[in-house]
Structures are given as structure tokens and as C-alpha cells.
Amino acid sequence: MSRHSWAEPYKIKVVEPIRMTTREERVVAAREAGYNTFLMRSEDVYIDLLTDSGTSAMSDYQWAGMMIGDEAYAGSRSFYNLVEAVHDVYGYEELVPTHQGRGAEHILSQILIKDGDYVPGNMYFTTTRFHQEHAGGTFVDVIIDEAHDPASLHPFKGNIDLDKLQRLIDEVGGDKIPYISVETNVNMAGGQPMSMANLKATYELCHQHGILVMLDATRAVENAWFIKQREAGYNDKTVAEIMREICSYSDGATVSSKKDNLVNIGGFLALRDPELAKAARALLVAFEGLHTYGGMSGRDMEALARGIREMVGTDDHVHARVGQVEYLGDALIKAGVPIIRPVGGHGVFLDAKTILPHIPHDQFPAQALTAALYIESGVRGMERGVVSAGRDKGTGDHHYPKLELVRLAIPRRVYTQAHMDVTAEAVIDLLQHPESVTGLQFTYEPESLRFFQARFEPVA
Questions:
Q1: Annotated active-site residue in 92, 118, 124, 451
Q2: Active site residue 451
């Protein structure tokens, strides 16, 4: 008998109670938070889809590892367990541990970027671009055009446009491009993967011009799953095998371990060149911690080493992880809700510009929709649009990305399909009266990474 349904490859051992608030309570909470979901208290949230970063549930195997973490200041046994896990799963020889992904981004930018350099990438990510610009570089988007089209069904919308990349090389010269920043499963594009063929071609082109390829491999497992499902020649390969091949077309990687690696804190910079690793470790000691802990405790490193092996132990884990995202996305598509398609790997992205055409772009439709969804349902998402894009440092004007999105990021191994049903119903109900949502204006705007701490009020 054929089986059409699937279930999560785990059973629940510990639960955390959550409470549904009243609409009146949520109106107050939203106002006090300046209509920014990052400033809300988690106790006021019913279903928390703000981020999949550091919000996963760890396994009993990981929790057991926490009990035997080696807390030695130097030369921790848990550090060497982590080194072995990264080498076995990702294939990199040199490991520089950091407190989380942005610590790795900072160090990589500092050791490679000089004033006046250019750093191409397949769409910006907020903290990545900040560190590149802070080091004196200029980010250049070289992603394919389809990535900016919410309705495009291109299976690999994270791909590098090789013609755009070649034009940049011709214009500024390879010596002004220290590396290309290649994100697997591009977050700001809606969790969209790149193909193995494109990654290989990018690697070959860059090496012809002496340009390093540095992955943001934070969600490489999800990317590997999409390659297995969509790219010819990979259906019979395991996710673990595909992961190793992805990383083989790179000179290093930054990883926020709070995503694929199934831990609540931690990250690393992985490299092939021992001399680059030596330079990175010199900065690590100044900014993060000693080279054998880098901002993590021994127990953190032990849980991380186990999480890295667990995420590729079988394909069942990533199948269920991406499957839950697709479950929510398919429910919204069926109801006619405009979202980024194909459904991405880590969350569902609502197309706020299409949903709220009456709100001007400079009144932040994605931020307004995010706040309205919370008030109406207790579901917390986050804005990924003009607020996240920030301002042009030269002109002071807002960056206006083509994608104005509300991200509903799903934590790993945390919620059930019933929570996804409730979320879908909340979005569908809100879209019955989109005209009730009003635009927002700043009451406080930080200079950098403003989406984290900005405050707003409704436009009168």
C-alpha cells in the first residue's frame, strides 16, 4: 500500500506552554514595542515565527552532550570534537569558532576587505553587507533577475548571474574583488536555493581571476535538499554527500550555527588556507575569545558538534523541516495569498507590496503588515523590505528593494502542523480586509541595521 502522508521524524519529550493573548492585549503590546516585532516580549507572542535563528529544539543527544561539555579555557575536548564534525560534514580543514554567524562575518571581512574593494554576492543579507561596508567594501548584487520576481517559478532563484559577475570583474578588475559572498538558500530572496551547476561555474570563473569564493553556508543543508529534489543527477545522492560537494566549490564559509546546526547559540568561520586561518585567529582572540572556544562555552561546542552530525545523519530531518515550510506555503497558495514562489527552505514570505497596494513604499507596507498580523492573531513574523534594506550612505535615501516581504520563519522541530494551520488561517483572515492596515512612519531610526531596534507609529 502506498503512503501519501509523512510525519515528523521525532517524538516530543518536553513541552513549553504558550498562551493566547486577547486582541486588546496585543494592541497595547504592539504600541509599546513601536510596532516592531523585534521589540516585543516573547511572553506576548502566541506562535513565534520571527526567526529560525537560535529557536530550534535540541535533541536528547544534544542535551546529553551539554552535560559532558569540557569547559577548559584552552584546548577544550569539545572544541576538537567540533573541529572533527566540521571537517567530516563540511570538508574544511581550518576552523575558527565564533559566538554566532555575524562574528564570523566580521572577522572574514576584516582579514580580506580593503578600502575601495567590491564584494559581489547573490543578494545582500543585512549583517553580511554591514560588515563588508564597515571594512571599506562595496556590496554588488549579482543574483539572477528572477530572484526579484515573487511569482517566478525558477527552481534555483539563488543562482549567480555569471554575466553580471563578469561585467563587474571587467569593470573594476579582479584585484579589487577579494572574494564573492555566495549564500546557500538565499534568505532575502525567500529562502531560495542555488544549483550545483551554478555554484561550480561561479567557482571556476572566480578562480580564473584570482577571486576567492566564500559561502554563507548557514542554510546549506536546505539548499542540498533542493538540489536533491530539483537538479538532474542528484536524486540518488544523500544530503550529506551533496553538502560535501557544495562546500568543495568554495575556499571557506561563514556559518551561523543557530540555523541548520540545531543549536541556540554559536557559529564558525571555516577555511582551507592555513595562513588566512592564522590571520582570522589573531582577530578572534581580540574580538571573540581564545581560538579554542571563540565565544562559546564547552557545552555549546559539544551540542554544536552533535547538531552538525545530526542534521545530515539521515535525510528524514531536512525532509520534514522543509516539508513543514511547504505545508504552510501550500495552504496559503491554495487560498490565493501572494507569497514568494517556489516556497523556500526556512520560511514563507508574504508579498506585502501586492497585498497592501494602498500603502506607499515609504510607509513600509511589510512592516505594517507584520504588525497587523500580530495584532489580529498573536503570530509574530518580521519585515524583509525597505526597513531591512536601510539607507544609501551617499544620498541618505531609503534603499527600495523590489521585494517587500513579511517573513514567517519556522523554527526547526518546535511547532506542529496544527500551528501551521492556525498561522495560515490568521493570514487568510487578515487578507479579507487589507484596507484596514495603515502605513507606518519612524519615531526612532537607528543609523545601522535599523530593523532590529527602530520604532514606528501609524501614519495619521
A1: 451
A2: yes
CA distance readout (Å), 88 to 95, 184, 191, 396:
12, 19, 25, 46
**Catalytic residue flag (residue 442):** no
Q: Which of 19, 60, 61, 73 is catalytic?
A: 73
Query: Is residue 102 flagged as an active site residue?
Result: no
Instruction: Give catalytic status of residue 126 as yes or no.
Output: yes
Does the annotation mark 364 as catalytic? no
The predicted-structure confidence for 264-294, as pLDDT tens digits, reads as follows 999 999 999 999 999 999 999 999 999 999 9
Q: Is 216 a catalytic residue?
A: yes
Residue of 48, 216, 260, 315 with catalytic role: 216
Q: What is the DSSP string of 161-194?
A: -HHHHHHHHHHH-GGG--EEEEESSBTTTTSB--
The CATH number assigned to the domain with range 23-52+315-458 reads: 3.90.1150.10
Length in residues, the chain: 460
Same CATH topology for 23-52+315-458 and 60-311? no
For residue range 134-170, list pLDDT tens digits in order: 999 999 999 999 999 999 999 999 999 999 999 999 9
Give the pLDDT band (50/70/90) at residue 2.
low
Active site residue 51: no
Cβ pair 178, 185 in contact under 8 A: no
Q: Would you state the cell numbers that stand for residue 410, as one nine-digit string? A: 519556522
The percent of residues above 70 in pLDDT, for the chain, comes to 99
Q: Where are the domains of the chain?
A: 23-52+315-458, 60-311
| pLDDT value for 5 | 73
Catalytic residue (choose from 26, 228, 259, 299): 259
**So what CATH class is 60-311?**
alpha beta
